[in-house]
Predict the structure of Polysaccharide chain length determinant N-terminal domain-containing protein.
Amino acid sequence: MGGWAQLSNDGVEGPSHAEDSSVELGELKGILVHRRGLILGTAVLLAVLALVYGLVTPPLYSATAEILIDPRDRQIVSNAINPSTLSPDGGITQVESQVAVVQSNSVLLRAIEMANLTADPHFNRVSFLSRLKARLLGQPLDAERSKDEATARTLDQLRRNLSVKRADKVLVIDVTVTAQEPAEAARLANIIADSYLADQSDARADASRDAAGALTARLAEQRAAVQAAEDAVEKYRNDNNLISAGGVLVSDQALADINTQLANARNVTAYQKARVDQIQSIIASGRTPDATGEVMRSTVISSLRDREAALDQRISEMTLQLGARHPTLQAAQAQKVGIERQIRTELARIAASATADYNWAKAAEDELKTRQATLESQTRATDQVQVRLRELERDRDAVREVYANYLKRSQEVREQSNIDSTNARVISRAIVPIDKKGPPTPLLAVAGFFGGLGLGAALALLVEYASPTALSERQVRQAAGAPVLAVLPGSILRGRQPARAGRRARNLSGLLGLVLRRLSTSRRERRSPVSVVLLCSAEADARARGRVASELAATAASRGERVLLIDADLMHSRAQGPAGLIDVLSGESRLSNAVQDCYDDQVRFMAIGGDRAVLKERDALRFTERLWMDAADSFDIVVVDAGDLTTNLRASALVATAEDILVVARLRSTPLEAIRAQATAAGVMGRDLSGALVIGAGR
């Protein structure tokens, strides 16, 4: 910040009131450096608090017990209450649900009872507000420690000291308990794990008993429903004379039997009819009777046929030996005729017998047909009745099946309540921890310090955002609406160097000389007969503005110019001397009477004056123009310290007639709103700022 400023080549623009919220890296660094006290103070405060916390807080120890959850469940019976199917996510949801169960009131209250934590002062501690309330009301402290309140306090404290989570990528639940004693932490972790297993076992047993009770309560109702259904079926049978045997109606069985008998009778009738027709056909055609099976089975015909065959053989022999007319031969032939007659007679008898059998079979068939027709008419009459009967029987069978299922299920569930089907087990019991929980106290202090740095930086940015200050030339240029002519070194505020010697003095003189040259070359029209440079700033920068005015006057004098330095802060400067600026602007004195010697032969000084003079604003512009005309005879340049334009409104005549109006600001100190206020005040007085002189934060 101590180098040369980059001079703007653009014309001077009016003030810009649009606030640029962007912050460059250099500006951010400037904020942190400017607010370093706040940042370091916050860091030290947090480090001290962390150190005190680490020294005062008693050490804590954590112990962890691991519980494995099998999402498939233990299938003790084939039809268990608890489902054994695996969820699509591999059981992760079920395990996450069990994490909540471990932290539930039922498990923790069981653990509190098992460990008798209500008698432990670390878990059942009465709060300060409760003790204060008891003392104010004059009550004994034990009155506040009722059983329910003690259990509630213990439960709340245990839940604070408990951490339950599922381990990554496994179906294992970590139960971690923190306590002031290592052995106590391990004991409580194991007790909570055991309480969870006992709670799960009891919950499953209770569920089985509840289900068995519900089923048993329904058995009587189902039994009554079965009895009612069976009574309805029997009553309907009796009302409609539907007698059954072996589950089949008697009428249906009789009809089935008649149909079977009728089919057999028809077969017999057909057989007898074919037998009669065959025998009659043989008789009518005169063929040999050996062609039928009936004849072949007749012993009489067989005997006659044997005799006839023997006789035919004798006739053949006798015909060859005795001749055709031999009496013995004729007698044999006559005997053969007699045998044939006997065969025909036997065949006629067989035909008569077959006809009789046929007639009997036909009569039997007709009888069966008659009985079939009768039974069929009876069956058709009961068809509609049987439809309702079958409906009643279906209802009865359904109720029977439901009752049987209820009875079987009730027995299964009742037996399941006596079996431990918990699907969880402790795979790693908690052991007494050795190392205490949390970081060491020195590390805690270091972390607090660095955390304080971050918090302090955030607070610094927040404070800066609430009240932004000038951090860079860019922000000053945007706030003033004018170019930054130079960035002066911060050493200018340390006081004027009497000998004006040394490299820093020469650099400052050269820098201000360039500013004066820039002002003289950039003027497009003259507002006064003499070069007038007016300086303004916020009231907080009054000292910086005065130093810049003195150095600017000294620099002009070092260039051989005659300089008049005027203190024009009409609102805050104290009246001095017999005559001054107020006397000149009120018309009671001339320039020659108000000028005083200064520290340099080339520089003259005009104080505020005004001990008895009254400044009339309506005549100020006329007398100001006369002042500049008088100054043109004796001076080359006039440097005016106009103070804060927002309060020094009576300096409007000086502002209106000045050649150049410069605002003085300090980096990391002057608020941007104050710079914008100076630009706005100059605009109200009819002028725009010509430029800005910035004093850097460093040397």
Notes: Residues 249-403 form one domain. Confidence is low (pLDDT under 50) at residues 1-21, 497-501. DSSP finds 20 helices and 14 strands in the chain.
